[in-house]
């Protein structure tokens, strides 16, 4: 196969389109803290029940990615992208008609949009990775900033519209933005090449299996902060509703430098090398959350955690791509890891919600659980990097 162009109009256009897709997938998912707070009040359900809507959405993003990654490598990227866009838009507009029904919201926002996410995210990341080699980490970092873009646009829309036009028209306005941006991505994003369906040989690579296990642990605790910072601010700090939304905007907004800076450094030191300190900061930050007892402190904590969490999310696919020598197998390998991570994201936030409920509304147990998961994942990633360095005959400071 031809080597990646590592730049040029087609490559950077692919990055732009992928940024729009990530804006509508992870950007909307990271907005769920707004819905966690709103649904808990409007539906009168415990936190764990509400979390199942958001965690199902992420579960399907990763789990379905196992199939769509293979379809992409087999040459079916365009149909996959079209189906994912249709499901995403159908889910958001169906949510606007769900009213006060928990199960209708679960099916529309959790299942339908989750399926759409699964058709969109993994194929997009796999395609972008085939356009770059030397600048891959920076390119993926720019794509991953779509999470911050969506995390600013969508909560901002909810904050401005919810009190004025109600839930239904707020969701339809969000859906309108998704129709336009996904339409642009469908029109311009093109794959470079097809490939194989399966790569079972990856499971015989120790570093790949360790990376898969480390990813599972990290994603088990990663979204606790995104889902519960607004609820924590309301119930523990007694912040206003506006401040609870602003906190989510902060945690998403700082994700822009949180994604760009580590990925820029990753092109020099390697994505796995950068992922380790980033995950360490994230895990320690979750433990430190237990000591926050003021609104100002919570804003400061949100900045630190948002930087670290943004870095983890953007370095994760770049690190996985660095373990793949053949770019034609990138989609398959991403899909395999995504399928494992899907179960972590499915059960992670509801477990945290159940711990909070069992603790009488106290967050300390859930904070210890999420922080521990991130740190265990970091240790497994460190082991994966060590194995890769030894196989390559390089020192521990090698670019990996």
TrEMBL record:
Its main location: membrane. The keyword Amino-acid biosynthesis does not apply. It is found in: Membrane. GO terms for molecular function: transmembrane transporter activity. Belongs to the major facilitator superfamily. Monocarboxylate porter (TC 2.A.1.13) family. Gene3D superfamilies: MFS general substrate transporter like domains. InterPro entries: MFS, MFS_trans_sf, Proton-linked_MCT. Keywords: Membrane, Transmembrane, Transmembrane helix. PANTHER family: MAJOR FACILITATOR SUPERFAMILY (MFS) PROFILE DOMAIN-CONTAINING PROTEIN-RELATED, MONOCARBOXYLATE TRANSPORTER. One of its GO terms (cellular component) is membrane. It is a multi-pass membrane protein. The chain crosses the membrane at residues 12-38, 50-68, 80-100, 106-131, 138-157, 169-189, 209-229, 244-262, 274-292, 298-323, 335-358, 364-384. This is Riboflavin transporter MCH5.
